[in-house]
């Protein structure tokens, strides 16, 4: 009998070695006591200062505030359970030495700032490095996961993973400034999800990370609401709905599909044809043509964004299970293409990113989606996810009150990154709004969590483009 695989953490660099664990009642008591002593010293000094006319010039007050700030930052890190690494200790020591050096050179304010910041450096949150080498294991779990449109996006190579001991299920996540942001639902064997979540939360607690879940499905909310979620009460905030086509029964019949039929017919009138090819099987000519379309697209050709609901590496062939459906005009020129990801052994298909050439006929996206649904029906797929409809209730509301109007305006401020209303108008033609998705977070941490989520989803990174283009 073979032994089950043991989960092995990524090998730590020397500077990442933990030199002190503070996740214990004794450490918390020591932190609280140190904070109390520093605060009492400051109060005593302030009380004595009333008897001295020149107390403002007394350097003891500034020094007391510096020590109090450093101790408060250390105590905060202790109460959050953040471990101290060799790198943290080294940077903190350098900050203290630099602070004393600044005092010697008569830069007192700078010296105080450096010494106070040593407490922040000592308890700075650790991070988990991405684990792209785990892609074969993650793909196997994705290929075994059905009824989850976001499952393929677990493969994004900027993510880290937490597996069950036997590797039968995993959580994809990424760490940012003390938060572990989970991407969607767990993947793999769903009978192990409850155990997996408990182990993941315990692991995060040991690192001093607070948990946030981005894109949790309605049916998995219960995984994150148990008493095992130590020290946090995660509250669900709805952010939108999946748009999932029931492939075997889909038909563009009836008045409500009139706009969709008209858009598709328009492309037929223009002589548009489509073909499907696996991304990893593109030949040089196809790769060159598609790269030109990507570069000629209205936006996003040189950079890419996304965390929970997209993949990177378009046209690189990095990920398995990726299909492209390509639209060509009468002259055989590529007018646009969609990138789809498979899951559940082919039972589930999810749209990643659509691309179109400037000046391509209207209706290209609708035509590509409809033809992909038809092709996937023939291959036995059950569900096809077109995209994620964010905040559909706001766009459907015809009589917006002050609060709805505020959110509607705020959403449109981000149109340069993603035009959510235009995307919703496209998705609405398919009449396939599905289950809700949620962000799970602690309400007391809304502002820092919002910053972390915006950075993960919208911070641009340079796109890795294939080396061949048709123009070369």
From TrEMBL:
Residues 144-439 form the Phosphatidylglycerol lysyltransferase C-terminal domain. It is found in: Cell membrane. The chain crosses the membrane at residues 29-49, 61-79, 91-115, 438-456. InterPro entries: LPG_synthase_C, PG_lysyltransferase. Pfam families: LPG_synthase_C. It comes from the Bacteria. It is a multi-pass membrane protein. Keywords: Cell membrane, Membrane, Transmembrane, Transmembrane helix. This is Phosphatidylglycerol lysyltransferase domain-containing protein. It comes from Candidatus Mycolicibacterium alkanivorans. The lineage of its organism: Bacteria, Bacillati, Actinomycetota, Actinomycetes, Mycobacteriales.
